[in-house]
Design goal:
Elements (H helix, E strand, L loop, with lengths): L6 E9 L2 E10 L4 E7 L7 H11 L3 E11 L1 H4 L5 H18 L7 H6 L15 H69 L6 H15 L2 H18 L6 H22 L2 H21 L4
């Protein structure tokens, strides 16, 4: 069954006071166009993440984001109490030796001293944490794939409807084919008898009519179009990754419909061909979304 290239997946996991968010979304593209944004702690795992994504998503413009939301208590910059106390003792000693009074806003002054509020945030990614995050990444990718499958079911339903419509329109042309032959015969004989007012060889006329009608015959086009319609259905049910192939088949269908239109020489037949082209155009638009 076909899959759409449009999809969305997300996962959230908690680990030691951190809430880790993963989000992945995709749109249609001719190839796999992958854009990744990762929190600094996990950048060493970027290639592994890319491999996980490329193994599951063959095509599409894919945006992947991984960010961390920390608890308020952990996110706050810690105060270096030992260093702050050291500064206080230095202020006190200087004030006693120089008889300079202590600052009235001593606490604020101490907080502005170098490194009192410097946050030392040196972290290493543990195997335990990465295993948790990796599982969440796989979960988000799995959600996107499932989303694509559901979209693919909707696309397949639409394609089948359009294929059925084209088949019905193709059959609707048949009554006008015989009518067209009769009208062509009448138009030519009337032109010879009434307008030109000449005698003519009826056997020769029949031969010319047969030649003319053969030029307008669309049986081969109908047969080839029918084959393309069946092949389109078969391709939809043939595994996945058929987007490009379905596009090529749609192009061939368009050629047969165009040739049928050029050979119609009948107003009602040409109207039906226009409706067939409209159905095919809708197929071509949606094929661009197929992986």
């Amino acid at each position: 069954m076909i899959q759409s290239m449009t999809g969305y997946g997300k996962a959230t996991v908690n680990f030691e006071g951190k809430k880790i968010h993963i989000e992945i979304k995709s749109l249609n593209s001719k190839a796999l166009d992958l854009s990744i944004r990762i929190a600094p702690l996990y950048r060493e795992k970027e290639m592994e993440i890319r491999n996980l994504i490329s193994q599951s998503l063959e095509r599409g413009k894919v945006d992947f984001s991984l960010w961390v939301e920390k608890e308020v208590s952990e996110a706050a910059t810690p105060i270096n109490a030992a260093l702050m106390n050291n500064y206080y003792e230095q202020f006190k000693a200087i004030a006693e030796s120089t008889e300079i009074p202590m600052p009235t806003d001593l606490f604020a002054t101490l907080l502005r001293m170098p490194d009192v509020l410097t946050k030392v945030d040196v972290q290493e990614l543990s195997d335990e944490e990465w295993n948790v995050v990796r599982t969440a990444v796989s979960e988000a990718i799995g959600q996107l794939v499932e989303f694509r499958k559901q979209e693919g079911i909707a696309l397949a339903k639409k394609f089948n409807e359009k294929i059925d419509n084209i088949e019905a329109l193709m059959k609707a042309i048949e009554p006008y084919e015989n009518e067209r032959v009769t009208k062509i015969r009448e138009r030519i004989t009337d032109a010879l008898e009434k307008t030109l007012n000449v005698d003519y060889d009826k056997n020769r006329l029949e031969q010319e009519l047969i030649y003319y009608i053969e030029k307008l015959d669309i049986n081969e086009e109908k047969q080839r179009l029918s084959n393309h319609l069946n092949y389109f259905r078969e391709t939809m049910n043939d595994g996945h990754g058929q987007g490009k192939k379905l596009g090529f088949i749609a192009q061939e269908m368009g050629r047969e419909i165009n040739t049928t239109g050029s050979k119609s020489n009948h107003a009602e037949m040409q109207n039906i061909v226009v409706r067939m082209k409209d159905e095919l155009e809708q197929i071509k638009e949606q094929v661009l979304n197929v992986m």
